[in-house]
Specification:
The chain is an alpha/beta fold and 448 residues long. It has two domains: 3-41 and 313-444, Beta Barrel (Lyase, Ornithine Decarboxylase, Chain A, domain 1), CATH 2.40.37; 43-206 and 217-310, Alanine racemase (TIM Barrel, Alpha-Beta Barrel), CATH 3.20.20. It is 31% helix and 25% strand. The protein is built from 13 helices and 22 strands. The chain has helices at residues 26-33, 42-59, 77-85, 95-103, 120-129, 139-152, 190-210, 216-219, 240-258, 284-294, 309-312, 345-349, 436-444, and strands at residues 4-6, 9-11, 17-19, 24-25, 37-41, 64-70, 89-92, 111-113, 133-136, 155-163, 185-186, 222-229, 265-267, 302-305, 316-328, 331-336, 355-357, 364-370, 379-387, 394-397, 418-423, 426-431. Strands 5, 15, 16, 17, 18, 19, 20, 21 and 22 form a nine-stranded mixed sheet that branches. It has an eight-stranded parallel barrel with strand order 6-7-8-9-10-12-13-14, surrounded by six helices. A four-stranded antiparallel sheet has the order 1-2-3-4. α9 (240-258) packs parallel to α10 (284-294). The radius of gyration is 24 Å and the shape is globular. The model has no long low-confidence stretch (mean pLDDT 94). The site of ligand LLP has 23 residues, from α11 and α12.
Length: 448
């Protein structure tokens, strides 16, 4: 029995690195589709989703729940389709993500529109699609959404995102619940804003009923505050912060209910950490136990979960080719054909990603793996023990299914890379490698 080295990755009897349920050779994938290349495993994605659903089913105790996959983690259409087929909905943060979800066949009634700044056009798009919930992060947005909903005669549901003033232990750039973070509405202001909003709505409704000439379409529109939510950050390993946030959420729900609001949706965001190196990650069961200790068990309560990284983080690798190696004053440096524009995480968060050679027998040496971009931040590993690569070798950069391709760019006019999905015994191209035409198409037509 061959030992799995990391999620979906193992070396076969001949010491060749394989990935996915049918054990595709990393070298074959590189030769068939070219490098750099993202490859995902459908069974790992489904496995993570099913694990989440399974734990929810056994622990929810009568509460209704919905998994809204956080699209920003990886928004490829085929991935969205795969996730939709598993019954999940989506957490989106832009009109572009909404457009993708609709193309992938995700039911609008399973879509939550999050984000700290949505434009009027984006809000209108969400209204017209009839999405499940708008997660609203400010009073300004609440009033704007209501105005737009009234204008279009659409009834919409709102969940207010709270800022609970707690700092989850993770990288500061991906901690979102602290008092100085831009996200959410300070929890102590939620009740006031909700009351003020209701008062204004009642005023508007009174004015409307006095105006007999009002067309009936406009009479029905507006928004209802019927949810509360939080998202305190990403790659969180310590479940106690989720519990603290849930406590604040439930206290707020009680005070809103006492004031006559019917809070039927509680959105607990995403943020569960995964293993990149040797982190001790929370079991889904323990994460849910923490939340369910606090969340009420009312029959009319719908719980929303927005995992991104947990679903796809460990299900994707980036295959890159070693272009050359050099020795700068005793420092061994491997230059590969992937760069920070393809995977930004190490440059942005100094994140760790395991790096494996396509052949097991390569020894190890202290070295760096860098990309060709003109920035010193363009590295995947900095002075650490790496395989002793040879020119032309392939490296697999692990655990980059989430926030890998979705954060990629054309910096340095590099063509964005291809994506492949392994499903059963097939490796299917799910995004073509960009071509020079793609790089220039939006400029050529308006070049002077
Ligand atoms: N819900 C909301 C409102 C979010 O803002 C996010 C992620 C999620 C759910 C999903 O969180 P997850 O389960 O994936 O942790 N680019 C960074 C991560 C940024 C996360 C932003 N928000 C990285 O590469 O680590």
């Amino acid at each position: 029995m061959l030992q799995e080295y990391r999620e979906g990755l193992l070396y076969d009897e001949e010491g060749r690195l394989c990935f996915g349920e049918s054990k595709f050779l990393v070298e074959d994938l590189a030769l068939e589709f070219g490098t750099p290349l993202y490859v995902y495993s459908a069974s790992l994605i489904q496995g993570a989703l099913r694990e989440f659903y399974g734990a929810l089913k056994s622990q929810a105790g009568g509460r209704s729940f919905l998994i809204c996959y956080s699209v920003k983690a990886n928004s490829n259409l085929s991935i969205l389709r795969l996730i939709q087929k598993e019954g999940a909905g989506a957490d989106i943060v832009s009109a572009g993500e909404l457009h993708r979800c609709r193309k992938a066949g995700i039911d609008p009634q399973k879509i939550v529109f999050s984000g700290v700044g949505k434009s009027p056009e984006e809000l209108e798009y969400g209204l017209k699609e009839g999405i499940l919930l708008f997660s609203v992060e400010s009073a300004d947005e609440l009033f704007l959404l209501d105005k737009l909903a009234r204008r279009h005669g659409i009834q919409a549901r709102v969940s207010l995102r709270i800022n609970p003033d707690l700092t989850a232990s993770t990288h500061p750039y991906i901690s979102t619940g602290g008092r100085k973070d831009k996200f959410g509405i300070p929890s102590e202001e939620i009740l006031d804003i909700s009351l003020r909003f209701r008062e204004k709505c009642q005023e508007k409704d009174r004015e409307k009923s006095q105006k007999k000439s009002q067309d009936s379409k406009g009479d029905t529109g507006g928004v209802e505050i019927c949810g509360l939510g939080f998202h305190i950050g990403s790659q969180i390993l310590d479940t106690s912060s989720f519990e603290q946030a849930a406590t604040i959420l439930c206290e707020l729900r009680s005070s809103l209910q006492k004031s006559g609001f019917s809070i039927r949706y509680l959105d607990v965001g995403g943020g569960i950490g995964i293993r990149y190196k040797d982190e001790k990650t929370p079991a889904i069961k323990d994460y849910l136990t923490c939340l369910f200790r606090k969340l009420p068990q009312d029959a009319d309560l719908n719980l929303l979960f927005e995992p991104g990284r947990f679903i796809i983080g460990n299900a994707g690798i980036l295959i890159t080719k070693i272009l050359l190696s050099k020795n700068n004053r005793g420092n061994k440096i491997y230059v590969c054909d992937a760069a920070m524009n393809d995977l930004m995480r190490p440059a942005l968060y100094q994140s760790y990603h395991e790096i494996l050679a396509h052949r097991k027998e390569r020894g190890k040496c202290n070295s760096s793996l860098v990309g060709p971009i003109c920035e010193s931040g363009d590295f995947f590993a900095n002075e650490r023990l790496l395989p002793s690569f040879e020119q032309g070798d392939y490296a697999a950069i692990c655990s980059c299914g989430a926030y890998g391709f979705s954060m990629s760019s054309n910096y340095n006019s590099r063509l964005r890379l291809a994506e492949v999905l392994i499903q059963g015994n097939k490796a299917k191209l799910i995004r073509q490698r960009e071509r020079y035409e793609d790089l220039l198409s939006l400029e050529e037509s308006c070049m002077f």
